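Weekly modeling sync, notes
Attendees: S.R. (lead), two postdocs, one rotation student

Agenda item 3: backlog of single-chain predictions. S.R. asked that every request posted to the team notebook include the full sequence so nobody has to chase files. The rotation student volunteered to paste the first one in as an example of the format we agreed on. Action items at the bottom.

Example entry:
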Amino acid sequence: MIPTPFSGQNRIQLNKREYILGIGSTLIIFLHIVMYAFEFRKIHNLLNPKSLLLWALGLGIVIGAFIAYQFAKKEFDLFEQMKIYVIIVVLTCLAMPLWINLTNRKWSVHPVEYKAAEFVTSRAFIASRSGNFDPGKGKNIDGYETSFVFNNRLYTYQSSTNAFPNAKEGDSVQVAFQKGLWGFEYIVAD
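Predicted structure, as returned to the notebook:
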């Protein structure tokens, strides 16, 4: 083989530890993507997802800056330090909403509370890559989207079963709420 300027002879040679770190980091990022895919529906069931996301991003910036400082203090070049800061802060900001929501929901020490709400609608849906759509008669459904009014605000959540099969619009229903570990309240759905 004739060496060319772009044939790889000038690339950085990585040792075994660096390969393991690179492959491990890639697997961790892929795992976060998969976990986010499963957690999106649960984030949707929060009463106030905006406050959780803002809180998680703020915490991600603080934790990311601390971790980045630990790595960057060994570098003398300002450009290298900035690269480390940006990469670590961005990655922690991306991961924090997932972990805050998971710990809020899974480690909750508060009991489930049933509160009265005004039922609006419940409809079956079939999930697809292009969004949810209304199933026709005789189709297998993927879940139910239920809407209700609570404290003068309209909330919608998704579940795999119809929580209120006999309710009509305007009926009073008991919706299950739970306060999470970090104080963010969510709708308990299966």
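Discussion: group reviewed the output briefly. The CA atoms of residues 29 and 109 lie 29 Å apart.
Action items: rotation student to repeat for the remaining queue; S.R. to check formatting next week.
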